[in-house]
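Question (not urgent): is this output format expected?
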Amino acid sequence: MTNLILLDELQLKALIGTRTQDVFDLLRAQGPLLASDLQTKLRFPSKAIFYQLNKLQAVGLVRVLDESKNAARYEAVAKRVRIERSYPSDLYRLLADQYAQARIRKVLADYLNMSVSAVSNPELHDLVSLQFTSLELASDDLQEFTREFIALVEVYRSKCSQVGKPSVRLFMLALPDLCGPGTKPRGTKKQ
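Got this back:
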């Protein structure tokens, strides 16, 4: 497995789907895995798992390590993926925007689900955290991204106020990590 690949248009298009992201993320974090392991961990039907694996294989993001009569082990081809800095085409730019928005929606949804559980289970409060998603944005996209991110935070803040008390102590957007070359993402977390 390589450390980093630049995503092409077909790979970006494949990764826009939430289920595809879930499968790919799990393979990057815990792979290689059997399809049955993915099914157990993600709680997707086996048909959905194989559909996502085939989709990821077709665009070169996943490969089969070994195949036996009963099962195959799947591995992500890279631990990290990156969007090209100089968008090679208008289509690439559109797909990169859709991918970034999909990642943000997915991370926020995961966070909201965990936060809702944490409200009724105080022992979970210290476990509520976001895993960072590193994005490379063109400087002219940064303002739009910031506006959309703030809007998502406002949605979350509104949901917290409906519960009666906010459950967020710290919510941070680290802009240099998102747009600066050579920086290492620190993450965004609730403490």
